Amino acid sequence: MSETSPMSERTASRSGTTGPDTGRLEAALGAMQDKLAVIETTLIRRIDGLEAQLQQLRDAHTIYLGGHEALTRLHTGHRIYVDTRDAGICSHLMLDGRWERWIETIIAGAVKPGMTFLDVGANFGYYTLLGAAWVGARGRVYSFEANPGIFRHLRRSVSINGFDDRVELFNLAVHSEEATLRFGYTDDFSGGGSTMGSPQGAHHIEVKAAPLDTLLAQVATAHVMKVDVEGAEPHVFRGARALMDRSPNLTLIVEFHEDSTRPIMPPLRYLQDFVDQGFALRLIEQKGLTGAMRAEECLQTLAGTLGYLYLTRGG
């Protein structure tokens, strides 16, 4: 019977033979490495998730401020304050950052750097802000909104975008004469506020009104006017004849509805008056501008539906 000598045990150890303890250590080390791999994967996923959340916050389109007010971002990057109760324009601004793309395209083509742009019926200021960017530092924007609640949002929006140097704001109704008018509006469709009547259940307030010829007597010329005042458009133009007369190269973008115009003046006469002043009459449609048309043709084309007039003179 042979015996293993101490020398042979040392030789076996030096030659790499492993015992039970070494195997257990290696197994424990492997298990630890697996756990560390799981932890590492979990941490990476959580970090990625946090980074995604941070990016969402950076890119947040709308931030609710409380009291039915939100700050949202237009597709141009400009900030605008809105009323979250409004189901008309504000729902589109909060979701898409855009309103009336097809009309915006036409107005953008008309407004150039250095021009004077009038936004009559500015609402929350979508076209006021875009117009301020389009005219640049050398241009001017005159913005008019009768609803005092909306006007507060409009004023803040102009300031937060740094446009106080080129935008002048008026909290009143543009009319044919100086007056105090009854103004009706609803919270869920605040852009439909009007001095020409309002739906049942509307809020009613008194607002000051004045003609553009009085308000802008110091303005040498206007280049582009967007007019959307829920049926009171004929009153606006009656009170702007002097301004229009000294603006030979003038473009008008005007909301028009035959039934809304009729209580003030016959629709055909209203349209023909623009033609008699030298304006070419076209319509803004979803697919773009129509060709020039006669006043009668315009009425036939719209057939009593809401339309947007595009009137150009000179230039």
Automatic annotation (TrEMBL):
GO biological process: methylation
Biased composition (Polar residues): 1-20
Domain spans labelled Methyltransferase FkbM: 119-259
Key words, A-Z: Methyltransferase, Transferase
Pfam (any one): Methyltransf_21
Record SUPFAM superfamilies: S-adenosyl-L-methionine-dependent methyltransferases (SSF53335)
GO MF entry, a single one: methyltransferase activity
Source organism superkingdom: Bacteria
Positions of the UniProt region annotated as Disordered: 1-24
Xref: NCBIfam families: fkbM_fam
Listed name of the protein: FkbM family methyltransferase
Organism lineage: Bacteria, Pseudomonadati, Pseudomonadota, Alphaproteobacteria, Acetobacterales
